From TrEMBL, chain A:
Residues 616-641 are annotated as: Disordered. The keyword Oxidoreductase applies. SUPFAM superfamilies: CO dehydrogenase molybdoprotein N-domain-like, Molybdenum cofactor-binding domain. It comes from the Bacteria. It comes from Jiangella asiatica. Pfam families: Ald_Xan_dh_C, MoCoBD_1, MoCoBD_2. This is Xanthine dehydrogenase family protein molybdopterin-binding subunit. Residues 20-135 form the Aldehyde oxidase/xanthine dehydrogenase a/b hammerhead domain. Coiled coil: none annotated. Keywords: Molybdenum, Oxidoreductase. InterPro entries: Ald_Oxase/Xan_DH_a/b, Ald_Oxase/Xan_DH_a/b_sf, Ald_Oxase/xanthine_DH-like, AldOxase/xan_DH_MoCoBD1, AldOxase/xan_DH_MoCoBD2, AldOxase/xan_DH_Mopterin-bd_sf. Signal peptide: none annotated.
TrEMBL record, chain B:
GO terms for molecular function: 2 iron, 2 sulfur cluster binding; metal ion binding; oxidoreductase activity. It holds the Pfam family Fer2. It comes from Jiangella asiatica. The keyword Metal-binding applies. Pathway: Alkaloid degradation; nicotine degradation. This is (2Fe-2S)-binding protein. PANTHER family: OXIDOREDUCTASE WITH IRON-SULFUR SUBUNIT (PTHR44379). The keyword Heme does not apply. InterPro entries: 2Fe-2S-bd (IPR002888), 2Fe-2S-bd_dom_sf (IPR036884), 2Fe-2S_ferredoxin-like_sf (IPR036010), 2Fe-2S_ferredoxin-type (IPR001041), 2Fe2S_fd_BS (IPR006058), Beta-grasp_dom_sf (IPR012675), Diverse_Oxidoreductases (IPR051452).
Length: 801, 170
């Protein structure tokens, strides 16, 4: 049994449980809880005139009906604005239940609690809400025109306006020998985990404590929010993320209206209450992302080197801004990718619309930024008649220029400084993997057979592992098991495996002895959350730091027991031994379990092993206190990792597509990924993250869009109509790795969770443009979109390839 | 207005289980909340995602589209019943573990039951057939690549275990 587990593609330790139906997701908890259901606004914009519950009162099994009037104290106030920013001058958040006005279809208006969900929905159907309609603002153009307003007191529908600039971009562009302008658009999509949201709450009136299970990416922060809202001391509130059936960003948003109301009702009723979101609710009352319009103006020399880049983004933030303006900040900073932009100016307007609120979805603004930059790179290449990879290479930040300071402020409020990366090496690898230089021959062959094919490329840099911190707890039990806890949550990333690998490697114990708990405030109270590809970087390093402290202490305690110098000891397979001693030699080794016993001086023995630690159990130095000053009992330590700034992963994708000359169907023939997330803890899990990210990217590039009509109705709010890809729509992903360790953290790792999704729209747009001979500027692109583009370009007389 | 109740009895994973429920109780809810077999998951409640797939008489059906009363007396297999008799991972489950065919695990039970039924009818699929076999189930985590590999791996494991069983037979 090896203990050097780091970097091994071991099978996941959580799988047997999940594969046999023993997982415990939110709706698997609380079979006897009361069920909540919500009456939601059917209108995008309206004033609430009256709520009539009379007919619902006869429903057998009804327990309670609540409207905003029932919400006392802070529960009745607007939900928190989680990430304030000075540019967010007109931030607005919803009430837990709408007060006076609704601003999108799906906004919760009435809460019903009943004996089960069927009955609760019966009651919802019988509640009559009268509305005065207001004209809705739908779409970014309508929001920008501002002929109508979402919120009366927000002029221009602008929640935030921010300009970041490094150098004088506009002058640099004006003086450049070549100038291009691009207008680009990305439509809305959404995280769409297979499990929706859900909350279960249990109030213990005797203990005066609240336990809440919620399908979240941020259990500690939910606890803080609930304690504040409900007026409870935080230490009387426990929040647990059970098994979570996917997050992809949407579950970092908190506290949801339902997340406040379910515990509130549980306290009020003195009963367990549960709400499990249904699929339509998820479409219309969770959150979306991606929708942006962009204008790019770029100046470059005759070699294609950027001299100045000026980008304006109109970002659709939906009805409210509870998560602040993180998404457009990320778009405008991460847009830069692996390139030196010359002088750079980025300006964004974050705009209200009467549609579902926008918060981060995997990639969190990066796919849009990558799309803008990569479309610009392709446009420069086309303008100069230079190969697309050559233009990119000429603009790369070189390895010897690291760390590279962009002179901007990143989403964590810290300077945008890339820590490491070897972009030319990554480019070489992706060109080789996809066969970039051989593509012309393939195209000729295909053309001769009447087929239309194209190749595309996209490069990205992703700031991962944002602060402020995460913590890790590592404890060796007296039976030799090692319990590990970290506060951030898990939604399928394999944390029970990768964090166990870290501990096994750092502590020298068999991985089978390590048990990891995440997202449970009872086990670890300080955490930020799982987002921004930060879990492995943040908690991985925090746990490594804690494990190293435990190791130091174990060696010290064992050294005293073995009368050896701690520096001469090592831990192998869960046993502390003198380095170089023959196995089994007496007095040269001691099991870690025994060290754990000795580390906790006892008065009372609970078993034979424990007798060794009691006051008469063995020879001790009676001149010293049993627990030395500054020391603590037990073999357990807590460690925190707080980075000075983010660490920047990177990667490049390339795809070969075929477009049908008649039907305009787009098929992905090959999809290749080279990525660099520093040192790998578990390559198999990283590959899985890449595969899944690419699949979501393909969805966003070819199939998924939130279709709103002019009245603000979401027309495709079901899996029948919102086209999430099945296995038949997702290509095989070919991968290669580049490993440039991060100098910023002890393990040298960078995040990998979002990488797969970031450049896909850019890559597919590049490849389809290459196949068709005209530039694709709006994504996603459906066959009918492509057909329309062909008609427009042929009427303009452009050549088809 | 109280609802009329019906006793529904199923043979679930080889065990007779019954509960008294209204006519509108969905089979998915019946399994999950009345029998507390929560391995079967509900992802969309409109028969598209396939997470709730269970086998009724060996055939895969969407339990969110079926009322429990309509399958009264039937034999039902859920993901909990796809293990080996000793409780260890069954061939499809083992294949998913070997191939990293799951991430969050929420859609997985529907894939496991679907593939179990599929391999019963088509024990040696090609890679293309494997991809087609799972094309009625949604997964948001894996990109399907490792699930396709899991189908092929499960086919190997099944054949192996059939051969092993044949060898072990007197």
């Amino acid at each position: 049994m090896t203990t050097s587990m780091l970097g091994e593609p071991i099978a996941r330790r959580e799988d047997p449980r999940l594969l046999t139906g023993q997982g415990r997701y939110l709706d698997d908890i609380g079979h006897r809880a009361l069920a909540a259901a919500f009456v939601r606004s059917p209108h995008a914009h309206a004033r609430i005139v009256d709520v009539d519950v009379t007919e619902a009162l006869d429903v057998d099994g009804l327990v309670a009906i609540y409207t905003h009037d029932d919400l006392e104290g802070r529960v009745g106030e607007p939900l928190p604005l989680l990430i304030p920013h000075e540019a967010l001058t007109h931030g607005r958040t919803p009430y837990a239940l709408a007060k006076d006005e609704v601003n999108h279809v799906g906004e919760a208006v009435v809460m019903v609690v009943a004996t089960d969900r069927y009955v609760a929905e019966d009651a919802c159907e019988r509640i009559r809400v009268r509305y005065d309609f207001l004209p809705p603002v739908v779409g970014i153009e309508a929001a920008r025109d501002a002929a109508l307003l979402v919120h009366d007191d927000v002029p221009g529908n602008v929640s935030a306006h921010l300009v970041q600039e490094n150098g004088d971009a506009r002058s640099a562009i004006d003086a450049a020998p070549n100038v291009l302008e691009l207008d680009l658009a990305i439509e809305r999509s959404a995280s769409t985990p297979l499990e929706g949201r859900g909350v279960h709450a249990r109030w213990d009136a005797d203990d005066h404590s609240l336990r809440v299970y919620t399908s979240t990416q941020a259990s500690t922060s939910v606890r803080a929010a609930l304690a504040a809202k409900l007026g409870l001391p935080p230490d009387r509130v426990e929040v647990i993320a059970p098994d979570v059936g996917g997050g992809f960003g949407v579950k970092i948003m908190h506290p949801w209206p339902e997340e406040v109301l379910v515990p509130w009702a549980a306290i009020r009723l003195g009963r367990e209450v549960k709400w499990t979101e249904d699929r339509r609710e998820h479409f219309v009352s969770a959150t979306h992302e991606r929708g942006q319009l962009q204008h790019v103006r770029v100046g470059f020399d005759d070699e294609g080197r950027l001299l100045g880049l000026d980008v304006t983004v109109w970002h659709d933030n939906g009805a409210y801004t509870p998560y602040g303006i993180i998404v457009p900040i990320i778009t405008t900073t991460q847009l830069l990718g692996p390139y030196k932009p010359g002088a750079y100016r980025a300006e964004f307007f974050s705009l209200y619309t009467n549609t579902v609120t926008v918060t981060p979805y995997r990639g969190a603004g990066r796919p849009q930024g990558c799309f803008a930059m990569e479309r610009t790179m392709d446009a420069i290449a086309e303008h100069l008649g230079v190969d697309r990879t050559v233009v990119r290479e000429r603009n790369f930040i070189q390895p010897d220029e690291m760390p590279f300071d962009h002179g901007l402020t990143f989403q964590d409020g810290r300077p945008l400084i890339y820590d490491s990366g070897d972009y030319p090496a990554t480019l070489e690898k992706i060109k080789k993997l996809v066969g970039w230089d051989d593509f012309a021959a393939f195209r000729s062959e295909a053309r001769a057979a009447g087929r239309r094919v194209g190749i595309g490329i996209g490069c990205y840099v992703e700031g991962t592992g944002v602060g402020p911190y995460e913590g890790g707890f590592v404890k060796v039990e007296t039976d030799g098991t090692v319990v590990v806890a970290t506060g951030l949550t898990t939604q399928g990333q394999g944390h029970q495996t990768v964090f166990a690998q870290v501990v096994a490697a750092e502590l020298g114990v068999p991985i089978e002895r390590v048990a990891v708990t995440t997202g449970d405030t009872r086990r670890f109270g300080y955490a930020v959350g799982t987002f921004a590809s930060r879990a492995a970087v943040m908690s991985g390093n925090a746990i490594a730091i804690a494990a190293r402290k435990v190791r130091d202490k174990a060696l010290r305690v064992a050294g005293e027991a073995l009368e050896a110098d701690a520096r001469d000891l090592e831990i192998v397979d869960g046993t502390v031994r003198v380095v170089g001693s023959p196995p089994g030699a007496p007095g040269t080794s001691i099991p870690l379990a025994t060290v754990a016993v000795l580390a906790n001086p006892l008065r009372y023995a609970f078993d034979r092993e424990a007798e060794r630690a009691t006051q008469f159990g063995g020879p001790v130095d009676v001149s010293k206190p049993p627990v030395a000053e500054g020391d603590s009992p037990g073999l357990e330590e807590t460690g925190y990792y707080s980075p000075p700034r983010s660490t920047f992963a990177n990667g490049m994708h390339a795809a070969i597509v075929e477009t049908d000359p008649d039907t305009a169907e787009i098929s992905i023939l090959r999809y290749c990924v080279v990525h660099d997330c520093g040192t790998l803890i578990n390559p198999r899990i990283v590959e899985g993250q890449i595969h899944g990210g690419v699949a979501q990217g393909v969805g966003g590039a070819l199939y998924e869009r939130m279709v709103y009509d002019d009245a603000g109705q979401l027309l495709n709010a079901s899996f029948m109509d919102f086209l999430m890809p099945y296995s038949t729509e997702v290509p095989v992903v070919e991968t290669d790795h580049q490993q440039t360790p991060s100098p910023l953290n002890p393990l040298g790792i960078k995040g990998a969770g979002e990488a797969g999704v970031i450049p896909v729209s850019a890559v597919i747009a590049s490849a389809v443009s290459d196949a068709e001979g005209f530039a694709v500027t709006r994504m996603p692109i459906s066959p009918s979109d492509l057909h329309e583009l062909r008609l427009r370009h042929s009427s303009e007389g452009g050549p088809a390839r | 207005m109280s609802e009329q109740l019906y006793e529904v009895t199923l043979l679930v994973n080889g065990v007779h289980r019954s509960a008294t429920v209204p006519a509108r109780r969905l089979l998915s809810d019946f399994l999950r909340h009345d029998l507390e077999l929560t391995g079967t998951h509900v992802g969309c409640e409109h028969g598209v995602c396939g997470a709730c797939t269970v086998l009724v008489g060996g055939r895969p059906i969407r339990s969110c589209l079926q009322f429990a009363v309509t399958v009264d007396g039937e034999e039902v297999t859920t993901v909990e019943g796809c293990t080996r008799p000793d409780g260890e991972l069954g061939p499809v489950q083992q294949a998913f573990r070997d191939c990293h065919g799951l991430q969050c695990g929420f859609c997985t039970p529907g894939f496991v039951t679907t593939i179990t039924a599929y391999l019963h009818e088509n024990p040696e699929p090609t890679a293309d057939e494997a991809r087609e076999a799972i094309a009625g189930n949604l997964c948001r985590c894996t990109g399907y690549q490792n699930i396709v590999a899991s189908v092929l791996r499960a086919a190997q494991l099944r054949t192996g275990s059939t051969e092993a069983a044949a060898e072990a037979a007197p």
